[in-house]
Amino acid sequence: MYLHPEAASAGTPSRDVLLVSAIITVSLSVTIVLCGICQWCQRKMGKRYKTSLETVGTPDSSRGRSEKKTIKLPAAGKAGNAAPAPGQPPHDESDRKTEPHSSVSDLVNSLTSEMLMLSPGSEDDEGHEGVSRENLGRIQFSVGYNFQESTLTVKIMKAQELPAKDFSGTSDPFVKIYLLPDKKHKLETKVKRKNLNPHWNETFLFEGFPYEKVVQRVLYLQVLDYDRFSRNDPIGEVSIPLNKVDLTQMQTFWKDLKPCSDGSGSRGELLLSLCYNPSANSIVVNIIKARNLKAMDIGGTSDPYVKVWLMYKDKRVEKKKTVVMKRCLNPVFNESFAFDIPTERLRETTIVITVMDKDRLSRNDVIGKIYLSWKSGPGEVKHWKDMIARPRQAVAQWHQLKA
């Protein structure tokens, strides 16, 4: 390369050197700009991909066929013969199963991973003292009145997040409809088998019902779990005075279910603790005490004792029971029972607690029951999860006795 003598002596770079430096500078600038564009694109693409994932699997709220039932109702307010005959269950239209929606389904399938992920601080802090308010689900319905035809229309649409009442972790819900204070005449929806999020879409027309009598009534809905061989279990209830509803057009409501007035709330409560030992493959159930038990005897008392059944896949495995406490509605038991339960069977295990009233001359009466498992009601599931999250610790909780 030739350099001019004067340029060489002054230390000034040649034209070729300046050209190479300019090319390098431009290349670096282009590279920096391209990197910035790539990062921006990645962020945008990542955001779009995340949004698309969040929209996958959105449930279809319009599922289910609409069905209308016409009931001619005389001015006296009788419901006619639209309800099923005594002893006959409401007819089931569909056995389609809807998966239960609960916090349990958000956990991984592996029990070992579940125990590692759960921690005492991860649970809801509500209800550490006493009994927390149990979530019984909610129901959607609509009501309106046709003045020209003197007809009250009630449509039962659907329910969500109902508690499980069966050993299988599901329920068979249906709805009874009353216009209080009339308790003799009721109408019923069909039973939805094994479904915690049922869709009914059934319409009931109360024809020939004067408006001045409609506004004196209270619409009462009771959700129950149908049992073929025993008494139907109440799940929850909703009541709405019709004089507080604008009946000139169909009004749609979402209402949280409350404990049934004739259901579990009047049977008393039981305090018990669970202690899970994974190394010993055992669960210790401690029956501590009960309070405000329902009086089953003529004298206004009961002779309570507690039976504890270990169930595996809906089959009875082992039974234990406490001593009988004579003439007592607030008994203190403090009796512990140990059950051998391998870890791999824990998910299919249910512990059934039954508070009984001892009768010497007749059959013992059931005061109330509690089902403890991974797939029971919200309060029972919380106790079960707390037990797994705190191995080798006795976890105590109050439970409402249920029918």
What can you see in these coordinates?
The termini are far apart. This protein has helices spanning about 5-10, 15-55, 110-115, 210-215, 380-390, and strands at about 65-70, 140-145, 150-160, 175-180, 180-190, 200-205, 220-225, 235-240, 250-255, 270-275, 280-290, 305-310, 315-320, 330-340, 350-355, 365-375, 395-400. The protein is an alpha+beta fold. The chain is built from five helices and 17 strands.
Question: What's the arrangement of secondary structure elements?
Answer:
Blueprint: H1 5-10, H2 15-55, E1 67-72, H3 111-117, E2 138-146, E3 151-160, E4 173-180, E5 182-188, E6 199-207, H4 211-214, E7 218-225, E8 233-241, E9 251-256, E10 269-277, E11 282-291, E12 304-312, E13 315-321, E14 332-340, E15 349-357, E16 365-373, H5 378-389, E17 395-400
Parallel strand pairs: 1-6
Antiparallel strand pairs: 2-3, 2-9, 3-6, 4-5, 4-7, 7-8, 10-11, 10-17, 11-14, 12-13, 12-15, 15-16
Approximately how much beta-strand content do the residues carry? Answer: 25-35%
General shape: flat
Average pLDDT number: 75
The succession of helices and strands, N to C, reads HHEHEEEEEHEEEEEEEEEEHE
Helical stretch tally: 5
Q: Are there runs of 5+ residues with pLDDT below 50, and where?
A: 1-10, 44-66, 74-89, 91-132
Secondary structure tally: strands: 17
Strand order of the largest sheet: 1-6-3-2-9
Helix content: 10-25%
Judged by helices, strands and strand pairing, the structural class is alpha+beta
Distance between the termini: 103 Å
Note the main sheet: 5 strands, mixed
User: In angstroms, what is the radius of gyration?
Assistant: 33 Å
Subunit structure: Homodimer. Can also form heterodimers with SYT6, SYT9 and SYT10. Interacts with calmodulin (CALM1, CALM2 or CALM3). Interacts with CD63; required for localization to lysosomes. Interacts with APP.
Biased composition (Polar residues): 52-61
Membrane topology: Single-pass membrane protein
Protein name: Synaptotagmin-7
